[in-house]
Amino acid sequence: MFQIPQPLSDLLLRGLMATAVIILAYFISKYARLSLERVLSKFGLGFARRIAELIRYFVLFIGAVVAVSVLSLDMTAISVIMVLILILLLVSVRDMVLNLASELYLVVRKPFKDNDQIKVGDIEGAVRSIRAMDTEIITYDGDLVIVPNSYFLKYPIINKSQSIVRNIELKLIFHRKELDEVERAIQEVLMEIKPELFGEPDLLSISEKGDKVEAFISIPIVNVRKLRWLIAKITKGFFTKGIEVEVE
Fold it and tell me: What class is the 6-109 domain?
C-alpha cells in the first residue's frame, strides 16, 4: 500500500494549516472592516471606509506572517518573504496612511470649515470645500488652489475667520457727480465686496462739498493687509460704472 513519506506529509499538513490561517485572516479582516465602518460612520462614511480598509490590510498582513511561520520554512526564506510582503504593504498604503492621518486631524480637530478665511504655508484665501483627499481654497487673487490634506500636517494653520473683526472706515471722494447717482453706486459696490467681508458693509454718511461728493463707509475685515486689495476692488467697482473715486 502506497504510503506518503513523513516529510511530505508534514509539509502538506503545514500547508493546510497555513491555508486555514489565511482564510481565517480573510474573514476576520472582513468582519473588522464592517465593524469599524459602523463605529466610525459618525465621522463620515468615506473616512470610516478608509480607516476600515487600512485595518483590513493590517489583519491580512498578520495572517500572512502567521501562515509563513506555520510553514516553518528556512529562516532566510521567511525573512525574505516577510520583507517583500512588508515592502509591498507599505508601498500600497503609504499615501493612504498619510491622507488618513491628515483627514483624521481635520475631522477631529476641525481647524476650519467652508468659507473660512485661512492661511497655511504660503497659501491664503477662503476655503471653498473640504474633501477626503484635498481642500479647495480661493486666494485673494481669485485663483483656485487645490491643497492636499497632508499639507495641513506640515504647516501651522491660521484661521482668520476666528480672529477679531475690525470695522475700517474709508472716505470716498467723487468729483462732479450727483449725490443720488453716487449713493446708488456706493450701495451697489458695497454689495459686490460683501462676500469678501466678515459682516455687513455700511454707508455711514454722504454729503456734497462744493463740486464734489464725500462719503464715509465702514467695512468689517480681519486681515488689515487685505485692505489694499479691497480698496483696489472698490475702485475697480466704481470704474466699471464710469465713476472715478478717490479713497482715503
Answer: mainly alpha
